[in-house]
Amino acid sequence: MSDENIYIEQRQKKAEEIRKKGGSPYPQNIRPTHTAGEILAECGNLKGPELEKLQKTFAVAGRLLFLRSFGKAAFLKVADYTGKIQIYIEKQIVGEEQFELFKSLDVGDFVWVSGTLFRTKTDELTIKATQIKLAAKSIRPLPEKWHGLQDIETRYRQRYVDLIVTPEVRETFVKRSKALQIIREFFCARNYLEVETPMMHPIPGGAAAKPFVTHHNKLDMQLYLRIAPELYLKRLVVGGLERVFEVGRNFRNEGISTQHNPEFTMLEFYQAYATYEDLMKLTEELLGELAMRITGETAVEYQGEKIQFKAPFARYTMHEAVKKFAKTDAETDPAKLSPVKLVEIFEEKVESQLIQPTFITQFPTEVSPLARKNDAHPEFADRFELFICGREIANGFNELNDPKDQAERFKAQVEALHKGNEEAMHFDEDYVRALEVGLPPTAGEGIGIDRLVMLLTNSASIRDVILFPQLKTKEGS
């Protein structure tokens, strides 16, 4: 029997002993009066004599993370969602029965402790326990030293353990939540309306990607998990909701890497009577505010690079970028390249060099099926992408609102689909109908939330910023 199984068996026996005595290892009605964070905020600056004068009882509940016993007394560390606090328990104070209960506790158990505050000889703010209860028994022991666990996939598979024992991981997801809150505040302050659009689509669209396919039994119809909400959001602009945004999950049946997860979060927003230039400025404002409020400054450390989110960001047309960053020769002269070849060379030779925030504009119309053609140069679309640290963070453009032009581009996509391009779009007849009703001049943009949070939290992999990233099923699990 492994050491872990021995510990599990011992803990199971302790749980059974509690049941035999008429108690429960999983009681209800556990009521803390304070969190660890509240106690530290309220009393963290008080000296020992001042704490004694308080004559106030504090009750906290949390997971037992540390225990050091001295026979008839012990020090504990208990953590809740706001932080950690030290507990001192003494047999003479809590009595025989409660001290016996304490002795049956294991690291990982949830406990409830009530008592008064004092400072130890090392000046640490501590609760002197007068009562202690088991709040929930932990059967499976926590790893003693998480850094000793070499298999990083275990951290992703057992995120519930990772969050307990790795404070940096917890902080990453606190920052992610804060970033989403800031994004919502940012757009609501500019009179955007947050909306929700379908996650299951009868026709995949809104981006070039291979979709996940599912089936609705009652309706007996094939459906696709959305690869982008774009076409539905633009339908709302047609309907008069002139500023809309959505934060939601997208699904793409593609590869998995440090930058790709098949299920990911996107921000998409659309504004009538705006141009892609307006959205570039808006993006600079948004990212600058996020950096400042999440990290405290506009210059953010990421994997050894100092990324400056202060506007203005660098701007190049795709031709200019290829000419500047790719080694130009007869075969890579931007002026002589086909649209598809231009994009290929950009992706192969230029993207990885765009470390600081950089807007790339004038994408070929041929690879921009939903973007409006430039009036002066119709071979290019009024479109931009934002690159940071060699990866795409945002994609925006003036929306194509000519129904005839859109129908023709859909037909070209369908032809590509029939020739084996699994990422090509289908013909969306209803969307063309919506454009025929009338879409005002509109600009729209999508920003990858996961990649953005990677930058703001100095996370090397997308799996580090997704609570439960997609992993291959482990044999025997």
Quick structural summary:
The chain is α+β, with helices and mostly antiparallel strands. Helices cover 34% and strands 26% of the residues.
Key features?
2 domains, BirA Bifunctional Protein, domain 2, 18 strands, alpha+beta, 8-stranded mixed sheet, 477 residues, OB fold (Dihydrolipoamide Acetyltransferase, E2P), 5-stranded mixed β-barrel
Structural write-up:
With 477 residues, the protein is α+β, with helices and mostly antiparallel strands. It folds into 2 domains: 3-142, Nucleic acid-binding proteins (OB fold (Dihydrolipoamide Acetyltransferase, E2P)); 160-313 and 356-465, BirA Bifunctional Protein, domain 2 (2-Layer Sandwich), CATH 3.30.930.10. The chain has helices at residues 3-20, 36-43, 48-54, 91-94, 96-103, 152-157, 159-165, 167-188, 230-238, 276-295, 318-325, 339-350, 403-418, 429-437, 449-457, and strands spanning 58-69, 73-80, 83-90, 110-119, 125-136, 193-194, 200-201, 213-216, 221-225, 243-251, 263-272, 299-302, 305-308, 314-317, 358-364, 380-388, 391-398, 442-448. The strands form 4 sheets. The protein has an 8-stranded mixed sheet, with helices on both faces. It has a 5-stranded mixed beta barrel with strand order 1-2-3-5-4. A 3-stranded antiparallel sheet has the order 7-9-8, with no helix packed on it. Strand 16 (380-388) and strand 17 (391-398) form a beta hairpin. Helix 7 crosses helix 8 and helix 8 crosses helix 10. The radius of gyration is 29 Å and the shape is elongated. The protein starts with a helix and ends in a 20-residue tail after the last helix.
